[in-house]
Design brief:
9 strands, Rossmann fold, about 35% helix, alpha/beta, 9-stranded mixed beta sheet
């Protein structure tokens, strides 16, 4: 019954509330840019995704961690850098996956990316194994975590045996529920930032695909319901935003996850509805672990003063070390 209680994380006293715990790392955490080596991975549908690799040593190691970022993020987000640094200290290489149209330049096909897109994740997994890694571990943040959990559960037999374990943080497991929460007035700052970035991508896409990406009314869109109904759903083959949210959510697939997987969702995450916490799936699984700290915000988990690593990085490293020890 891997519903974990008594999480070791508690936010610093000087950083109260889910909003402050979400915003602080984004604004104030400073980390050097990793010495990534970039590769463009061709996809079966004629597109490309950018993979940034960081070696822990002078030569390729035996283990690698494949990381997936959140909405409108990329491999350079501070939470990605921090996780890469943590695993480098352990001697594990990192592969930071950029979603389509993220991390530099526009992608080639009409679609962008969406929260339930797992084919690109699978392609990145196969790419990592082609490089020769013996063990692969998956990490996902926010919608990147949704993709990881959906990937592991929607077709467990497709997941290569070398994929040993996964960890996901701040995951909107129920996209419909999370969309309602994010459209609340208190989350207007986040919504504005997301839509500002998405609007720019729509304008770039309009140059090549004007029918799929009409500009009329774009600047009047104020929430994901409008945006996903107008663009995400029709471009990616869904009938509506609701249809997209239902089919792209990892929630129905979590019970079928077959490898050790840790999900950490803070109870005060301002992005998540209560339905984003798959309690029953954890209670009935032997391998799916749900940890719900009281605090942490969304992709936050800021440490107390004097600690360099963020708690999420330490927690992922701890979980993966235990998983590796169990099979060695």
């Amino acid at each position: 019954m891997p519903l974990l209680t008594g999480s070791s994380y508690a936010a610093p006293l000087w950083l109260p509330g889910g909003h402050a715990q979400t915003i602080f790392p984004y604004l104030f955490r400073r980390l050097p840019k990793p010495a990534f080596t970039r590769s463009a991975l061709a996809t079966p549908d004629g597109d490309k995704i950018l993979i940034d690799r960081l070696l822990a040593g002078k030569k390729q190691g035996r283990y690698a961690v494949l990381l997936s970022h959140g909405l409108e993020g990329d491999s350079q987000r501070v939470y990605m850098r921090g996780m890469c640094r943590m695993f480098a200290a352990l001697g594990w290489d990192s592969l930071a996956r950029n979603f389509r149209a993220c991390g530099g330049g526009m992608n080639l096909t009409p679609g962008l990316y969406h929260s339930g897109q797992t084919e690109d994740l699978h392609a990145a997994v196969l790419y990592a194994l082609e490089l020769g890694y013996e063990r692969l571990l998956l990490v996902g943040f926010s919608i990147g975590g949704n993709q990881v959990l959906k990937y592991l559960g929607e077709a467990p037999d497709r997941v290569p045996a070398q994929v040993l374990a996964a960890a996901a943080f701040s995951v909107p497991c129920d996209l419909a529920g999370a969309s309602v929460v994010l459209e609340r007035p208190e989350n207007a700052l986040y919504m504005h930032a997301f839509l500002q970035s998405l609007r720019q991508k729509v304008r770039l896409k309009h140059r090549r695909f004007p029918v799929l990406y009409p500009l009329e009314g774009l600047d009047r869109i104020r929430g994901f319901t409008e945006f996903d109904n107008r663009y995400t759903a029709p471009v990616h083959g869904f009938s509506s935003a609701q249809d997209y949210w239902e089919k792209a959510s990892c929630l129905p697939h979590v019970p079928r996850i077959a490898i050790p997987t840790l999900l950490v969702n803070a109870k005060n995450d301002p992005f998540l509805s209560e339905s984003c916490h798959p309690l029953e799936a954890a209670r009935h699984s032997r391998v799916f672990f749900l940890e719900r700290p009281e605090t942490g915000g969304h992709v936050g988990f800021t440490p107390r003063l004097g600690q360099k690593a963020y708690w999420s990085e330490l927690r992922a490293a701890e979980f993966f070390t235990e998983c590796l020890a169990a099979v060695s």
